[in-house]
Amino acid sequence: MSSRMLRTTAAAFALLALATPFAAARQIRINVTNFDFTPRYASMSQGDHAVWIWDTTPHTVTQGDTANVPVTPTPGTAKFNSGDAAISGNSGPTSAAYSWKANATGLIEYYCIPHWPAMVGGLDVVASGAQGLSDFRITEVQYNVAGNADLIEITNLGATGDLGMYRLKVSGAGAATGNLLRNGSSRTLPVAAGAKFIVHLNASGINDANNLYLSGITGLPDAAGSVALYVPNSVNTSLALSSMLIDFVSWGSGGQENEATAVSASLWSTSTAVPLVNPGSSIEFCGQGGQYGAARWYENPTPNFGGSDNCLTPVTPTTWGRIKVLFR
């Protein structure tokens, strides 16, 4: 093989490696209503999130053998356990939520401690390939809007899902554990596959299927800042839990709020950030599902929140067949 062909082949493999996405941060929602888990059994891939949302009746989500009489697991023995916090009064639309990031494969059984044997469920976790899960991602941010009426776009890159009860943390503002995404007292914010949801900061308006107004947040920092999106979890609300973080973006300079958590979750690189953009421009995610990092974001001089992307330099996944065409 000639040196030219070797260089070409090496370049091709480099392109292929750069274009290969990581595993997507998909989620399946399980409603805990009418003394049942719905769906009772669900399929997912390792690395996906199971998200349980309660009704007004206290329940637990406790992993264990559902064939035996359940007891409260000894700490550390169960793969997940929402614990007594979910039994003792944690009901209502703003507090009853729990999530687990699948870190094992096989049939993972679980139950509700006070309502066994009627309330049992299972997660069929495979190494990869489970379909039909939502995949919420931050896809556009405008941090320099006049009056700090900044905008954050969240897109569902997977199947139809529910964004209700997710936590959004913007740097320098908002609650210490993030702001719950909810319309009044409702726990649900349905988002169709491929649909975009716009969060309006420091602005008032009428919430609808595609827009949520958070007037209590003063806006995003212009010079440098970050936005982080967490799955619902009222039991473990720490922003430092990398297993609960599903997307992150920062701009201006590295080291922004929650960067360390994003690095631990393999969603970001240490001390990196999207470069600052011109006034009036937004930053837009131009990658694919399962791709993360500052290099996937670009300046959009004509923001189009809720519409099709305006990526000037889109990141296109490639294949070996496409590489052979490019380098033929």
TrEMBL record:
LTD domain ranges (all copies): 127-273
Record key words, sorted: Signal
Task: Tell me the domain of life.
Answer: Bacteria
> Which organism does this sequence originate in?
Eiseniibacteriota bacterium
Key word Nucleus present in the record?
A: no
What protein am I looking at? LTD domain-containing protein
- Report the leader peptide range: 1-25
**Does Signal count among this protein's keywords?**
yes
